[in-house]
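Hi X.,

You mentioned you wanted examples for the new student's onboarding notes, showing what a folding record looks like when two proteins sit in one file. Here is a clean example. The first protein comes first, with its sequence line followed by its structure tokens.
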Amino acid sequence: MAHNLAFESAFLYARGVVIQEPVYDTIAASQLTLKGNTVFRSLGDSGLKTLVPQLLGDELPSFSDVTGGRSFDELNPQDAESIHYACADADYTLRLYHLFNGWFDKWLPKHRFIVEQIESPTAVYVGLMRHNGLLVDAELMERKRLEAEEKLANLREDIAFIIGDVNIGANASTSAFKKYLYQNLGLPVLKTTAKFQEAADDETMILLAEWCETNRPDLVPLFKLVQEYRKLGKIQSTYIVGYRKYINSVTGRIHADLMPLATETGRFAARNPNLQNMPRAGADDVGVRNFFIAPEGKALLSLDFSQIELRVGAFYCKDVKMLETYRIDGDIHAQTTAVIYSIPFEQAVDKNAADYKERRTIAKICNFGTFYGLFPRGLQRTLKFKAGLDVTQEQCERIIANLKSGYPTLTCWQEETKTRAKARKYSETWLGRRRYLPGISSEDWSKRSFAERCALNTPIQGTAADILKLALGRIIAGLPERPWLRPLLQVHDELVLELPTDRVTEAVAFVKACMEEKPFPEFDIPILADAAVGPRFGELKEMEM
């Protein structure tokens, strides 16, 4: 038991010890208890210095008061002040353990299970990931930084050749640039901000570029340059300069903070830096993932759940076609293509068929939004700005209608879930992780519709998150026999580990077994985890197992 089990886990792991269950993290427990009628405590609400006065009525001395400005390794563990400080922490942690468990047993028993069986083992895994960190190819990062700076300078010159000395700033969104677009050039306002000002975001640039193709073709090159400038500028500031400052000078690695309870659905978040939002391999010209490498003689291993949220959604709605597709390891995107276009399955999987690529792209986007409630206009915007497809609103209406008729139990599940959430004022995962939705009865349509989307989103995303975290507990249990296997990172549904190159087959078999194990008795759909291995995070090769 510990308050901040991830820290204790990392501390002991550095000395060769992997903490084993039973474990209990009172910080996790704090974040799964309420501080108001419908609001759970955040990480910022869960420090001992905050909880002890609020819940136990005592005051704790600050760390600086005890240490006199010194660090841990400068303290004499035999000093009375050091002993008192350490014992106070342990004592108050024990008191909080009993206090929180009493609260869980009275008000939310399932949250006690989540703390003990899911979040506390996850905290141990988090400590290991943070201790290990990801090794950075600093030379490649520096080379890409210089290349990006040169290219950005060239793009600024090209843009200036068209618009003159207008200050576009680092992201081409300055008030001077907007004034130039809307006043000097007299372009139409195709989108506004929340404060009803002229917008200048990426979506606006796409809309203006399309308008100019018909009305001002001379300006089309400007918007292509601006979009390229913005994309490269974000990569430069976020993933090159932004990541670079977090490289540890001793280890040469980035040791990010991973927060398993930072979202309301139970999915991970990351900071210092946010390694979870890095572009996928091949999705950016710089190749951000290639900055992360394995040491000599070792490899990076990725295990990624295959369509876990779609599988969870199929489990919930019990649609016969979806269930059968997953049980025979079929192609769910082809199945949805057949459903929304009313074509035979054989035609949907035929790569030589007319419109195969576009139809499959639309089916994929529909699948990933199916369980959360699709609206024609929203689908149209997603297809346009995420996939570059121009589909009319009428076509989107027809697609959604076909989807509902083709997967008949989907709509029933959605309506039942929203009705249940409205009656309870909360939604929850299969294992009982709760999310309160006070806005679900609001007369304000925007608040109510947002809460309804959360009611649908929480069971699926949250249950998928619980499935991943249960797998982390199984991996923890097997690490003492596999000290060569080092957890590095969690990215959405993916785990990244480091290991000797001659242990890859053994590691894949172990981690896949941990991830693909049936998460709870009722889950009746096969779970699959895809493995990939390589020397760089951006150059992993899929493995056949």
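Then the second protein repeats the pattern, sequence line and then tokens:
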Amino acid sequence: MQNESKIISIDNGYITFKMDLNIYSVDNLINKYVIFNDDKKFIGEIYSIKDNIIYSYLLGYIDDNKFTFGDLLKPSFKSTISLATEQELDIIYSEDSSNISLGCSSIYQKYRIGIDINKFFSNHFAVLGNTGSGKSYAVSSLIQKIFYESNSSPFKSNIFIFDAYGEYRNCFTNISRKFGDLNYRLITTDLSSNDNHLALPFYLLSTDDIALLLQAEEKKQISIIDKALSLVSIFAEEPDRVLEYKNDIIARCLLDIIYNNSNLQIRTQIVSVLSKFNTKDIYLDKQLKRGGWTLTLKQCLYINETGKIQDIELVCDYLESFVRMSLDYKKASIKKYYTIEDFYNALEFALISEGILSSDKVFDYANVLKVRLDALIKSPSKEYFVYKDIIDRNEYVCRLLMSSDNKKYQVINFNINSLDDRFAKVIVKILSKWLFDFATELNPRAKFPIHIILEEAHRYVQNDIDTKLLGYNIFDRIAKEGRKYGVILGLISQRPSELSEVTISQASNFLIFKMFHKDDLNFVSSILPNVAGYNVDRLKMLYPGTCLATGVSFKMPTIINVDLPNPEPNSSNVNIKNTWYN
């Protein structure tokens, strides 16, 4: 009998063919792999059958027992045709160095898909999909397998999870079941909880950190924050220890008021400043001598009937005696520990020295910082910045990773469910920056890999004004520079189109679950040129727990049924029937 298997047409990557096969006698062929045997074995995936004509698109080819993805090379019309065997599936899917399994092929359901730990976790990755599609389950399963399936203890792993809903609370409590030296730590923002509470030493916040915290919008505000930080150590210190520095600061401020304002403004503003900021040398009731007369500094500011301050020169001469041109303010920063209240005082003085008392324009952009800081101090959120030990940032990171009895934590879960979105975004950015800075200072670099996994990443990784305001966005910076320092981002999001394009464009591995929003599908299609439109369309129909896996860890885009985690995250949907009727 003549073999009727033949290629009918080759149109770019699409191949139409007939096959010497009774399609009614075999299991469903849709999405199965077919081999076009030529000088190489070309792999196609069947996507349609009509009138015994089979339609497929080209995935790649096998040559010398190695699979290469892509449709650049095409088979010839003389190719023989057969269905893929298990041996050929091994070549397509398997890696000899695969360390952990992700799940089973959705097409060949008994065939397990493995991933190489190094190829996956040495690159930024993204887990995308609608709510309820299985993202949290996949992330939990993936991280658990690092500890459950590894051949040796991943003791030096450092995985920081920012948990938007508290879903992962119990997912990693069993990571020591195979290797006893592994530990999990939960840090919560729920101040009523008995768990470890989040605490950031306020004195470790940089100018950029405080700018984020106070929602700065203009570069002029940055200079005010920077000035307040240069003053806060002096203002927080015991007066006698920094008297010379404080006198210099206050004297310069008052002289600036005198030289740049009208007489009435001079008196009002100096009284306002010295009512709050003064020393034992410069204060309102300080007595100044002029000839045979003795007047207080406040009396010297009286305005006579001609509208002049008659004794202003006496005040100026006295203040100028405290100005020291050679003072090194860095040497005055004796006190390394200061509170958020200390910074408030320093900020208030910085605002005054910037001219907030005399300029409505300055008041408009400057006073908002003071108002926001005051609101923070009066809110429960202030507790997140109470940290009484004196440490540096590197030690802070080390304390996150080590217990008081020197146990090393491999997974640190920040449960930020108690924070509103705006404040959570600030906290996530600050901590991510500290982790990145910690890694960049290590020598040799990348010796201490850090993974930052962001649940609901679209809340934090956005196209913000940070780049315009600070010169960078921390997540864009980590995305572009992090790999060489061993800092890897994991982005979990149900709205990929809202993510920073710079950040998501640097991801090299993707697990994409069901999604059907047009903007998100277009976005995914634009950032994944290797995923055919056919595969993107299939995203609309994926079952929960099934994903399209693609990237450097996968030889080609593959639909996978991801293994269930154990324990599972607390991310299941509400059961209306049980809730309403029980």
